[in-house]
TrEMBL record:
Signal peptide: none annotated. SUPFAM superfamilies: Glutathione synthetase ATP-binding domain-like. It comes from Eubacterium aggregans. PROSITE patterns: ATP_GRASP (PS50975). This is Glutamate--cysteine ligase. Keywords: ATP-binding, Ligase, Nucleotide-binding. One of its GO terms (biological process) is SOS response. Pfam families: ATP-grasp_6, Dala_Dala_lig_C. The keyword Thylakoid does not apply. One of its GO terms (cellular component) is cytoplasm. Residues 79-333 form the ATP-grasp domain.
Length: 334
C-alpha cells in the first residue's frame, strides 16, 4: 500500500467526476478527440475516424437501452428478475410508507437483516443489522430508509465478504472487495484521531473527486460504534480493526481491494449472467460470498448497479490498477 502524492486528475478538468477524467485521459492518449459538452453533468463527446460517441460519467453510453437503468434502479424489480433467472438473491419483503408496521416488523426481531430504500445509490438510507435485531433499531432503520423512498425493502442479511464485479459487454473485467469504512488501532490514538489520520491519504476526497472518499463520523457511524460498545473517543488496541459502518460503499469511506486475479471464474460468470438479465453493456454487480476461494460457497447477489464508478478499480486502495477507461473506449470504437 502506498500513500505518496499522485495526480489522479486530468489537468484542467479536476472539477469533473474522476471516472470521467479517466475516460478523457485514455481517449486523448488514443488519439480520440474529446469535447466537454457539460462539465457539471460530466457529459462529453468523443470523435474518431468519422465516428461520434456521447458518454456521461464514464459509463453511461449509447450501448445501453433506456430501460436498463430503470430496471436496475428498482431494487425490488431487479431482485425479482434475477430470481426468475435462477440467480441467488436474498429473501425479503417490501413495505409501503403508509403500510402499518405492527404486522411485519415483529417477525424480524431477533434476526439479522438489511433495511434499504427501493431505489437509491451509494449506500444512502441503508442499514445493515448483522446481529439479532431489536425493535428499536429496526424502527430507526425503517425511518431512515423511508426518508429516501416511499417503498423500502427488508432482506435477510447474507454473511460473507462483499465484492463489486465490473462487467463490460459480457465479461468481468475487475473484482473488488469493498471493505466497510474502518480504522486499525495502535493502542494510543482514539478512533476519531485514527479517522483523521486515514483521511489524510491523498487518495481520499469528497464527491468522487478522488478514488476513495473520506470517512465521516456521522450518525450512522456513531450508531454502529455504539452497537460495539465504543465511541469516537475509544482507543482501539494495537492492530485491532474497528468497523465504522454496516455498508461497505466506497462513497461512505470504504476501502477498495483488488481481487480480480484470485476470484474463481464461477463467480465472474455469475456476475455476467446477472448483467445479461438487464441486457447491460456495463454494470457493477455486488455479490456477497461466504468464502470466495470455495466455488461451492454460499453466496447471493445483493444489487446490480447502472453507471458504476470505475475510479475505485482504476486506482484501488490495495492491488493493481485496472485500465477500465481504455476497455470502455475499445468497446465503443472497435
Amino acid at each position: 500500500m502506498t500513500t505518496e502524492k499522485k495526480s489522479f486528475g486530468l489537468p484542467g478538468y479536476e472539477d469533473m467526476e474522476l471516472s470521467t477524467q479517466i475516460i478523457m485521459r485514455e481517449a486523448i492518449e488514443a488519439g480520440i478527440a474529446v469535447t466537454v459538452l457539460d462539465r457539471g453533468e460530466n457529459l462529453i463527446e468523443l470523435r474518431k475516424d468519422g465516428r461520434r460517441e456521447f458518454v456521461q460519467q464514464a459509463t453511461k453510453t449509447s450501448k445501453d437501452n433506456y430501460i436498463t437503468p430503470l430496471l436496475m434502479e428498482n431494487k425490488a424489480v431487479s431482485k425479482d428478475l434475477m430470481a426468475q433467472a435462477g440467480i441467488p438473491v436474498p429473501a425479503g419483503i417490501e413495505i409501503q410508507r403508509d403500510e402499518p408496521l405492527g404486522g411485519c416488523l415483529p417477525q424480524w426481531v431477533g434476526k439479522t437483516l438489511v433495511v434499504k430504500p427501493k431505489s437509491t445509490n451509494f449506500g444512502l438510507g441503508i442499514t445493515v443489522i448483522d446481529h439479532p435485531a431489536e425493535m428499536g433499531e429496526l424502527e430507526a432503520a425503517v425511518r431512515l430508509a423511508f426518508t429516501f423512498d416511499s417503498v423500502i425493502l427488508l432482506e435477510d442479511f447474507v454473511p460473507g465478504k462483499e465484492f463489486r464485479f465490473l462487467v463490460l459487454e459480457g465479461e468481468t473485467l475487475a473484482v473488488l472487495h469493498r471493505r466497510a469504512a474502518n480504522v486499525v488501532g495502535n493502542g494510543i490514538s482514539t478512533i476519531r484521531e485514527l479517522v483523521d489520520s486515514k483521511n489524510k491519504d491523498p487518495r481520499r476526497g469528497d464527491d468522487h473527486e478522488k478514488p476513495l472518499n473520506k470517512i465521516i463520523l456521522d450518525e450512522a457511524a456513531l450508531g454502529f460504534l455504539k452497537a460495539q460498545g465504543m465511541t469516537p473517543d475509544s482507543v482501539p488496541t494495537e492492530n485491532e480493526r474497528v468497523t465504522l459502518r454496516g455498508n461497505s460503499n466506497i462513497s461512505t469511506g470504504g476501502d477498495s481491494i483488488d481481487y480480480t486475479d484470485v476470484m474463481p471464474q464461477v463467480f465472474k460468470d455469475l456476475a455476467v449472467r446477472a448483467a445479461a438479465v438487464f441486457d447491460a453493456f456495463i454494470c457493477g454487480v455486488d455479490l456477497i460470498i461466504a468464502d470466495y476461494q470455495d466455488p461451492e460457497s454460499p453466496h447471493a447477489i445483493i444489487e446490480v448497479n447502472y453507471n458504476p464508478h470505475i475510479a475505485m478499480q482504476c486506482y484501488p486502495y490495495r492491488g493493481p490498477e485496472r485500465r477500465l477507461g481504455k476497455a470502455v473506449l475499445d468497446k465503443l470504437f472497435n
